[in-house]
Design goal:
Order of helices and strands: HEHHHEHEHEEE
Number of helices: 6
Helix content: 40-55%
Shape: globular
Largest sheet: 6 strands, mixed
Strand content: 15-25%
Radius of gyration: 16 Å
Structural class: alpha/beta
Oligomer: single chain
Strand order of the largest sheet: 1-2-3-6-4-5
Number of strands: 6
Distance between the termini: 23 Å
Length: 170
């Protein structure tokens, strides 16, 4: 439970355990893809060379190994979302919170981002995704349906032996 933690303790939880993917990407527009991905590692106090190595690996993992020096505003929407995904995974978080990660993407990019989320999940990271897309929700292992902020349908809880769960809140 994080309810009793003070602001500094909550910041530590976010810094060390959580990754975030936003619908609107939230990239720094005139900053390179590489620098955007390095940002969470800056907050961890990681040295420049190690940060660079981790960020390059994360960009490669999302299929953007050649785009590190492009600024965010030079990238397509799908590429920007991949940079956002790389930023979320660069620090190897236990949980990624994804808010409408495909909301601004066409159907091809949506499939690619969902494939990427599934690969990350298979590597042991729990994904909690909010989506209005029935197609994206259908790919989740568990769905929780909300109406007016209240749970109206809760699928069966997955096996406790699984290391992680790709969840969807619709």
């Amino acid at each position: 439970s994080v309810g009793d933690l003070d602001a500094e303790q909550r910041a530590l939880v976010r810094r060390h355990w959580l990754g975030f993917v936003f619908q609107s990407f939230n990239l720094l527009p005139r900053t390179t893809a590489l620098e955007n991905v390095e940002l969470p590692l800056v907050y961890r106090g990681m040295g420049r060379a190690e940060r660079r190595r981790h960020a390059l690996r994360a960009l490669d993992e999302v299929g953007l190994s050649g785009k590190g020096h492009s600024t965010a505003n030079q990238l397509s929407g799908g590429e920007q979302q991949r940079v956002a995904m790389a930023r979320a995974i660069v620090a190897a978080p236990a949980v990624i919170l994804a808010d409408e990660p495909t909301g601004n993407l066409d159907s091809l990019m949506t499939r690619e981002i969902m494939d990427l989320l599934e690969r990350i999940n298979e590597q042991g990271t729990t994904i909690v995704m909010v989506t209005h897309s029935p197609e994206c929700a259908a790919r989740a292992q568990r769905q929780i349906h909300l109406l007016d902020g209240k749970v109206v349908d809760l699928d069966a809880v997955p096996s406790l032996s699984r290391p992680s769960v790709l969840e969807s809140v619709v």
